[in-house]
User: What shape does this take?
Amino acid sequence: MPDSRGKGVMETFFLSLFILVVVATAALWAWRRADHAADEAAMARLAALQPAAPERFELSLLEGLPEPAQRYFRYTIQPGTPLHTVARIAMTGKFGMGNRDAPDYMNMQATQLLAMPEGFIWKMSAHRGLLGISGSDTDQWTRFWLMGLFPVARAGGDADHARSAFGRYVAEAVFWTPAALLPGPGVSWKLVDINTARVIVRHEGMEQAVDVVVADDGRPLQVSFDRWTNANAEKVHRLQPFGGYLSEFREFEGFVLPTHVEAGNFFATEDYFPFFIARVTDIEFPKHGAIGHPE
Assistant: This one.
């Protein structure tokens, strides 16, 4: 049997280990709560960008636009609709953690605040069996956690991240906030072909062009662009084709918007991997400066 001295050493060891675990857990919990607070602050900042007294849509706003762009706006915005440029989008769907050959899809649900050209925040949780990942992606950071306790991705705060994020939320404005893409300072349109128009957005030294293919009635069918990304085998930032398909349109407060989106890297190539498959459950346009903060 161990002597009393040996027993005391073991008790001290296990007590120290217990205290270390408690302190580490508390620190991680506080870190996670700080991320939640940052998410809420980002949502509030973006919601405050909603026009307090938005102009209403009329066809005269489309004068001079390429014909496919005019078709797009006629379909997506009903006459007389207040031109809200900030949207809150609730969604479910699948998020691929793998690649084309092994997609490794997880069931996800998310809330997004989209305020092009200023920024966005996408707050997501995804699960497969007992495995859970949650966190947020914004124009400023990417922060994800395993099981809500262990940080598994921390990125952002640099020019590469900002440029990549800009491409994403300019394209998503085509999906969900068409009013933000009406011609004006920093936004212009060009004709590509009979059914395709290109929107070009410039903001704070960044520029992004996005092509929109529309049906005869103006319904946007697909969106594509060259995205600055390191989603490649070399993990090197470079321009790569990105895009997706839009379907299942519904009317939300005068806007007719897609509720099914499939998108991914290497769009329109044999390497296309649709890692993002979303089904929108609701879209709302928060009043100036007001929005909830769901967990």
Remarks:
- Residues 24-284 form a domain with the outer membrane lipoprotein receptor (LolB), chain A fold (CATH 2.50.20).
- The mean pLDDT is 91.
- The first strand starts at residue 87 and ends at 96.
- The CA atoms of residues 47 and 290 lie 6 Å apart.
